[in-house]
UniProtKB/TrEMBL annotation:
Protein name stated in the entry: Septum formation
Membrane-spanning segments: 31-58
Organism: Cellulomonas marina
UniProt keywords, alphabetically: Membrane, Transmembrane, Transmembrane helix
Amino acid sequence: MLLLGPFAVAVGALALRRVRTRGTRGRRLAVTALVVGAVETLLAAVAVVVLAVTLAGLRDLPTALDGPRDAHPAQVVPGHCLAGLPPDGAVRRVQLVPCDEPHAAEAVSTYAFAPGAAWPGQAEAARAVAASCRLGDADRAAGRTAVAWAPTRAAWLLADRTGLCLLTG
């Protein structure tokens, strides 16, 4: 798909040159090919840049942090501590802090859906992840509660099929 834009620009330029030199019809079609090809090339370039920036932002983070750090939810793994919990709903960014500093929650486990599984729906995904969160007696006695983060449909379509269990308190 990425080569169709430049191809349309090249064909449009070639056709425009032939229309001028031979005096034949087709100028509008040649100009249309140039414009559509240029727009498609520009959109493809923007998409590549956005994808590169997104993937660069999703690199693995160490669990031992030396200070606060913003992260995408897909970067949070067991051993990370969160400064605060975002409100319910889709989580865009979180702030990780060293676990020896005050924190609102700690990631303790993950739940992996089957790689080829069909989207179960948000409620079922949340239920499956929540069922995997296990609180020990010591956690209950300390007043901790489990919070489950399930993948959204958008994340699922991008092959993110991992849920996360966090302990608060």
